[in-house]
């Protein structure tokens, strides 16, 4: 579905991605973990056309999409749910959904699509006239995910969906992502909450210093003592990965 080939890129003269390479298969959840500053969010920006890429290639279903703009990436079937709260707090749930579809090519179909998405998220239908700020943190995250779905993505980039949420709400958000995966959407997520995220993922990817250092089935990474070490603030030694 998605392949990064030896990506170098960063901010101004600073290089953050130092030869990032990985592939993710269709209809799967992959969680990217790694220490603070490893470049996890930067990988997402690179994929979504928000980063200056110096070299390397990004392939989406075999097509070279390197250097495309965010709008072109949305048209190619990619959506990005950034870190933090991204709903418009004083607008209603329904109005937030309408805004999410603003770039949809067929505005006439948008109303039907919003209805379909509300079928998938009955909570949003129930609270359609409430201000977004009146939803809980987890419900707001679900609104963001639902809004991203209006554009019928094949690939969703979800950056730290669990930030600031209570454990129960985290479970709800993860379950939503699993349902989407079961419907055929490919999900790449970054998570600090690494153990819970890997537990609901198919694959895990450890990023360090802008490079994919480990990439395996999520269950295998969870069982790997080196990953446990990383969660506690360590790093992976060269000899250990050799
Ligand atoms: N807009 C920017 N301009 C300059 N440097 C940036 C910018 N955004 C991020 N960086 C730097 O790039 C590096 C990687 O940041 P990134 O946000 O990708 O890390 P991360 O792995 O997602 O970290 P965290 O787990 O802390 O969110 C950091 O050193 C950060 O300071």
TrEMBL record:
Q: Does the keyword 4Fe-4S apply?
A: no
Task: Tell me the keywords, alphabetical order.
Answer: Amino-acid transport, ATP-binding, Nucleotide-binding, Transport
- Which InterPro entries does this entry report, sorted A to Z? AAA+_ATPase (IPR003593), ABC_transporter-like_ATP-bd (IPR003439), BCAA_Transport_ATP-bd_LivF (IPR052156), P-loop_NTPase (IPR027417)
- Which PROSITE patterns does this one have? ABC_TRANSPORTER_2
Limits of the ABC transporter domain: 2-234
Q: Which GO terms describe its molecular function?
A: ATP binding
Q: Could you tell me which PANTHER family the record lists for this protein? A: ABC TRANSPORTER ATP-BINDING PROTEIN (PTHR43820:SF6), HIGH-AFFINITY BRANCHED-CHAIN AMINO ACID TRANSPORT ATP-BINDING PROTEIN LIVF (PTHR43820)
| Assigned protein family | Belongs to the ABC transporter superfamily.
The protein's name? ABC transporter ATP-binding protein
- Species for this entry: Sinisalibacter lacisalsi
């Amino acid at each position: 579905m998605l392949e990064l080939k030896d990506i170098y890129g960063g901010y101004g003269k600073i290089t953050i991605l130092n030869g990032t390479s990985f592939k993710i298969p269709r209809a799967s959840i992959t969680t990217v973990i790694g220490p603070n500053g490893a470049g996890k969010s930067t990988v997402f920006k690179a994929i979504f056309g928000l980063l200056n890429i110096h070299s390397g290639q990004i392939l989406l279903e075999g097509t070279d999409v390197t250097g495309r703009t965010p709008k072109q990436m949305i048209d190619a079937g990619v959506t990005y749910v950034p870190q933090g709260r991204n709903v418009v707090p004083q607008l209603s749930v329904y109005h937030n959904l309408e805004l999410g579809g603003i770039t949809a090519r067929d505005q006439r179909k948008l109303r039907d699509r919003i209805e379909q998405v509300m079928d998938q998220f009955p909570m949003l239908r129930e609270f359609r006239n409430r201000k977004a700020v009146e939803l809980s943190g987890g419900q707001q995250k679900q609104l963001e995910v639902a809004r991203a779905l209006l554009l019928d993505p094949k690939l969703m980039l979800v950056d730290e969906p669990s930030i600031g949420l209570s454990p129960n709400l985290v479970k709800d958000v993860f379950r939503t992502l699993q349902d989407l995966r079961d419907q055929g959407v490919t999900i790449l997520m970054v998570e600090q909450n690494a153990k819970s995220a890997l537990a609901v993922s198919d694959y895990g990817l450890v990023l360090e210093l802008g490079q994919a250092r480990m990439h395996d089935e999520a269950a295998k990474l969870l069982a790997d003592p080196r990953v446990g070490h990383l969660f506690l603030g360590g790093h992976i030694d060269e000899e250990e990965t050799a």
